[in-house]
Amino acid sequence: MNKLFENLGVTHLYSTVCHSPTNGQIERFNATMDGKIATLCDERRTNWDEVLQLVTFNYNTSIHVTTEQTQFEMMYGRQATLPFGQQNEIISLTQDPEHSQKIRIFLKKIVHEARNNIIKNQQQYKARYDLNRQDLLLKANDLVLVKTRNIRNKFDIRYEGPFKIIKQLGSKTFIVQHVKKLTLTRQVTMDVIVPLVKRWNLIQ
C-alpha cells in the first residue's frame, strides 16, 4: 500500500479518534455539504438522497474559497454550462487539432494557480492559529486532565482524570493511563489535555 501511495504521489496521514482537526479538510467539506443538504431537504429530512446530486453539482460549480477556482473547471478545463446561463440559439462546433494541447496547458495553469492559492491560505490559517497557541512541554509520567467526550448537558464535568502520560507517539500525540483505573488508557492530542502541577505546602 505504501508503494502505491508513493507511485500516486499521495501522502498518507493518520488521524486520531475524536480529533476532528486531524481531518480538517474533510470536516470542512462535510459541514458545507450538510448545510446545503439541509436547505433543500423536506421538513422531516428524509429525502436527503434525492437532493444529493443537486448539492454536489452546486458545490462543484461554486468558487472554492481556498483555491479561488471552481472544482468543475479544474476537472474539465472549462466552466460548467448552467441552466440560467445565456445560450446562443445556434451553436456551431468547429474542430481544432490543437484543442487537447490547449486544454492540457490551461489545466496546468489553473492547477498551478490553485496550488499557490492553497499555500497562501494555509499560511494565513497557520498565522492566525499560532497567534494564540501555546505549546505544552510534556513528557512521560506527567499528570494531565483529559477533556470529556460527548458532553450532554452544561453541568457535566469538562475534564476527567487525572491521567499519567505513559508514551509519546508524536510531537502532539500521547498515550495516557488513568492513575486509579489502570485499565483505562487513551490516545489523546495536545489540544484536549491540561497539565497538572503539584502544589507544595509551605510550613512556616
TrEMBL record:
Domain Integrase catalytic residue range list: 1-79
Task: List, alphabetically, the SUPFAM superfamilies matched.
Answer: Ribonuclease H-like
Could you give a GO molecular-function term held by this entry?
Answer: nucleic acid binding
User: Where, if anywhere, are coiled coils annotated?
Assistant: none
Q: Name one GO biological process term.
A: DNA integration
Q: Which InterPro entries match?
A: Integrase_cat-core, Retrovirus_Pol_polyprotein, RNaseH-like_sf, RNaseH_sf
- The domain of life for this entry's organism is Eukaryota
> What name does the UniProt record give this protein?
Integrase catalytic domain-containing protein
